[in-house]
Design brief:
single chain; about 220 residues; alpha/beta; TIM Barrel; two-stranded antiparallel ribbon; 10 strands; about 20% strand
Length: about 220
């Protein structure tokens, strides 16, 4: 199971997290987020040297030019789109990255889910997205809530694109995650419930959760 921890922005914290069994780290490039990574130039030498885990850049309604520049600069493996990006946008971005970069970069589309969410909206995105993220619908336009949505609604998702479960997953939720049996569940996206402050993760909480999730005890 993929474990992604998102919203990292402090070098020493990232270095510690790289020692865990983390598969993906998320760097947020949305300027209005308290976890915005911009300006942290000290990350670049470390990221150039260390190639694993994989890196996901989170963007909200960003220009293609800005995404391409950031993907190249931070050597991102995936682009996560967390705004109102259309399927045409995803298709265009996928094509531009294939043409302009000398390596494959995946596309992840995030959807904000409530009990009324219509999973049919994901169908148009399937040809252009490697993964989906199902996050909790928030009162604000963008950003998380720190709360779970009703995971039983996942039974209505009939797509083949694998997804990561997000939204309010905390240190005590490994067992609950393991009880989700949807065949397209590929992993979890961890953020605010593992934080000491925005952008600073509690490494020991992450370690304990991962050990339980991946049965390393």
């Amino acid at each position: 199971m993929i474990v992604k921890t998102c919203g990292l922005r402090k070098l020493l914290n990232i270095q510690s997290i790289y020692e865990l069994d983390i598969n993906w780290i998320g760097l947020i490039f949305y300027q209005k987020s308290p976890r915005f990574v911009g300006g942290h130039e000290d990350l670049l030498p470390f990221l150039e040297k260390e190639k694993t885990p994989k890196r996901v850049g989170v963007f909200v309604n960003e220009t293609f030019a800005s995404i391409l520049e950031t993907v190249s600069r931070y050597q991102l493996d995936y682009v996560q789109l967390h705004g109102g990006e259309s399927a045409v946008y995803c298709s265009t971005l996928k094509r531009m990255m294939a043409e302009d970069l000398d390596r494959e970069v995946g596309v992840i589309r995030a959807f904000r889910v409530s009990r009324a969410f219509d999973f049919a909206v994901t169908v148009d995105y399937e040809p252009f997205c490697d993964y989906f993220i199902f996050d909790t619908k928030a009162p604000q336009v963008y950003g998380g809530t720190g709360h779970k949505f009703d995971w039983s609604v996942l039974d209505r998702y009939e797509g083949k694109t694998p997804f990561l479960l997000s939204g309010g997953i905390g240190p005590d939720d490994a067992k609950a995650v393991l009880e989700v049996t949807h065949p397209a569940l590929a992993g979890v996206d961890l953020n605010s419930r593992f934080e000491i402050e925005p952008g600073l993760k509690d490494v020991e909480l992450l370690r304990s959760f991962i050990d339980e999730l991946k049965d390393k005890k």
